[in-house]
Amino acid sequence: MAAKIKVLQVIPRLGYGGAETGCYDIAHYLPENNVKSYLITSGGELLKFIDKKKVKVIRLPVQSKNPILIILNSLIISLIILISGINIVHARSRAPAWSCLIATKITRRKFVTTFHGTYNFKSKIKKFYNSVMVRSDLIIAGSNFIFSHIKENYSEYLNDNKKLLVIFRGINTDYFDPSTTLETDEDNLFKSWKLQIGKRIILMPGRLTSWKGQEMFLEALNKVNTQLGNEPFIAIILGSDQGRDLYKKKLIRLSEQHRLNKQVKFIDHCKNMPLAYKISDFVVSASIEPEAFGRISVEAQSMQKIILASNIGGSKETIVGNKTGFLFEAGNSDDLSKKIIEVMNLEENTIKQMGIEGRKNAVKKFNVEKMCFSTYSEYKKLFN
Prior knowledge:
The protein is α/β, with parallel strands linked by helices. Helices cover 43% and strands 16% of the residues.
């Protein structure tokens, strides 16, 4: 039966984000289970890694919010569905989801959406635009937090004919594995980032944008210095400003005001993220608005690193409190500084044990195989 299933995934761009990597992973998982895999996207960095023998890739401007292009895309997608015999269409963002909704109505195919974020819905127009993500036959929430968000804010679009469920996002725990990094590579990264031996390394990954909490993180570091003195750490803020150069300048000024400029390093990009985690002592995710999932938290645990994360959104679902990491009050620099000091004072055996438990948690609950299998199982139910 599975041999007849043909799945088309549609995503604006295939970059390195959580939604994109999930799409990429499922696209390659399906052919291994005798399902034909199709992908429509406008482009992106991950495209060059797609195995074209396994996945049929079609380029369309599905990133556009232009209503005319959305309608035009829907007609082209309808033709692709009919010509290729697609059974299931899976959209992962709002603009392409509108095109897919129209196309699946025209062709009478099953429609799946993954609700990847909370999305801004301050106006009725915005909420209507977002509602396309709950107009499908199957709605996948990436966390219990997103599941609750949909129930609370989009209940008018839900009915007994729609299925809403949680499938946690997965990461490649074989890739994020501390045993796979080479000591020479670790030394080289240490040198290229000009890190001091003997200092605790605190890693804060994530793009530079205000809601990720970099300002609050710097405030917390200043309080750690006030408490402990003698500059006991190096903090790495790892992420691109993605054109938000004013925000990055603001962060640099703030670090200078707090005399942290010798302790805080701003790194735009790291090609080998497992290596960045490996050389750090612990990891911070300081978002002041809810994360839909909490990918950084899961990656850190998979790399056997203690994670400190805000107590909101999907992040708090990924941590086993005081066993694999610690939660702090979102936006509270006092609480974060206390947690940083607490971790810095932990005994080596405790740090090691928490790392082992973190790895177990990531592999058991958030591995990519589990996510792919759960999604594939739902496709089969829809098809049958």
